[in-house]
Amino acid sequence: GRVLDGVTQDFSQNGFGLMLSDGHSITQGERVQLVLSRNGQDSLFEARVVFSKGAQIGAQFEPLSLRQQSELVRLTFSRADTWAASWGAGQPDTPLAALREVGAIG
């Protein structure tokens, strides 16, 4: 296997979007492992790439155990620092804006 660095673009309880660094790409359908770290502790999540365009990928988590679900929430959704800075600064979502965003991805 190989280890690639990337930056999460978005995430949900079902998967994540990732921008890979250094011009790397991953083929759609490939199985990957996402490592999330906090305070020196790593948690591993198995996923499958469902979208790939250049260095941008979208992956769906493989079925998560109850413990993994808890870890995912602890590392993402329950962290105030991931959303507090942007609280109230978001733009209202509209169908046309969503269509434009989807069209830009391809």
Structure description:
The chain has 106 residues and is α+β, with helices and mostly antiparallel strands. The chain has one domain (1-76): predicted glycosyltransferase like domains (Thrombin, subunit H, Beta Barrel), CATH 2.40.10. Helices cover 20% and strands 37% of the residues. Strands 1-2-5-4-3 form a 5-stranded antiparallel sheet. Strand 1 and strand 2 (15-20) form a beta hairpin. The longest helix has 11 residues, at 95-105. It is globular and about 40 Å long.
Q: What is the structural class?
A: alpha+beta
Number of domains: 1
Specify the biggest β-sheet.
5 strands, antiparallel
Q: What is the assigned CATH homologous superfamily?
A: predicted glycosyltransferase like domains
Based on CA inertia axes, which overall geometry fits?
globular
* Helix proportion: 10-25%
| SSE topology string | EEEEEHH
In short:
It contains two helices and five strands; from the N terminus they run E-E-E-E-E-H-H. The protein has helices spanning 66-75, 95-105; strands at 6-11, 15-20, 31-38, 41-53, 56-61.
List keywords for this structure.
alpha+beta; Thrombin, subunit H; 106 residues
How is the topology of this model organized?
Blueprint: E1 6-11, E2 15-20, E3 31-38, E4 41-53, E5 56-61, H1 66-75, H2 95-105
Antiparallel strand pairs: 1-2, 2-5, 3-4, 4-5
